[in-house]
Amino acid sequence: xxxxxxxGYRLTADHTLDGINLKAGDFVYPLAQPFRAFVKEVMEKQxxxxxxxxxxxxxxxxxxxxxxxxxLHRGLxxxxxxxxxxxxxxxxxxxEQDYAPVQGSYxxxxxxxxxxxxxxxAAFMAAAxxxxxxxxxxxxxxxxxxxxxxxxVISEGDQSALDAIAREAxxxxxxxxxxxxxxxxxxxxxxxxxxxxxxxxMDAGWTRYLFDTYHIPYTVMRPDEFEAxxxxxxxxxxxxxxxxxxxxxxxxxxxDGGAYQxxxxxDYQKGxxxxxxxKLLLFINNGGTAISWGQSTDLFTGxxxxxxxxxxxxxxxxxxxxxxxxxRDGLNIPGSLVRLELxxxxxxxxxxxxxxxxxxxxxxxxxxxxxxxxxxRRVIGHFPEKNILMSGYCEKEELLAGQxxxxxxxxxxxQVVLYSFNPQFRASTQGAYKLLFNALFLPxxx
Length: 446
Fold this sequence. Notes:
alpha+beta, ten-stranded mixed sheet, five-stranded antiparallel sheet, globular
């Protein structure tokens, strides 16, 4: 807000306003300032106005992103104050210094809450320094503060590095030495492959930016590299950002299922091909983890095939994409924030509330089926029955009602995590980051 010329204030003492209990340190942005319009634009939810080309005629529909609400996208709580309260105004003070939420000195073992995105950054930073990092197996309480499952425990290593880690992660740890035995499982940093094509792969670029910011190590992998042997020896997790299936398989750009000629050099027009896709499926079948969202989830739909010891197995994973049919039925959601109901007490949702906002474009739209043979599946998140749209624009919202939006699928010894939405849309949906971060620490299939 400051970078855009907005004057910010902070509460100097607790205050109750219209039944809302506000706390000292809360941020306040008065609208009586030059950039009032900007404050309203980014703080309020977006409601796209319904207008017509002619009276009673066709609706003027949006063609791109229709939601950019800072609080909603970041999973923050905000309140609009519509009437003056002098006692409240006397408790606010202009905030001019650089924001530094974490200061002071901390001791090991240190406990970082799963509810904070910064705790994941702290875990990766500590592990990179050779410190011992674990995740809580059960909820514990220290000094009246509860830490849920999945919270991180940094218990051994460079004591002097802890303060710098806490400051950069913007998350204040709690000293856990007084609790005795801590119910935690040690974690190891996974070997991550991030699949990126050669064709202006914007979503992969934003994913790289997010991982770089959070100190998450990864290796960029091109689709044509899958044909080479050895991916099981190199990686634990393979991530597919939102990219067209056609581009991943054939290496050729296109739209609506059809490819068009590119002026790229032939060396940069190579895809996974049938052999590369089979290598990916064998990687999963033998114990690897694949993470996919958006259009790339189509890689895992339809009839699939692997060959093990000269035996060919054909199978379909227990989900499909009916997004095209929903679009023909009138679903139109060019890019909005929608509500997701989450499965509680699951390793993929540790640290998350029971309901969260996610950025969604309407395709894919999952439907599930009964798993067979060596497969299983769980619906981790689904759209509610009503009040789905939180910010932006959506026609035929009822077509989303109750539909699955985040899936966990087991095949053989491995697993696939599928998102119909972008969990990291342009590095601006902090409220959903943990749905991706947790997938990096999934325990192996039992």
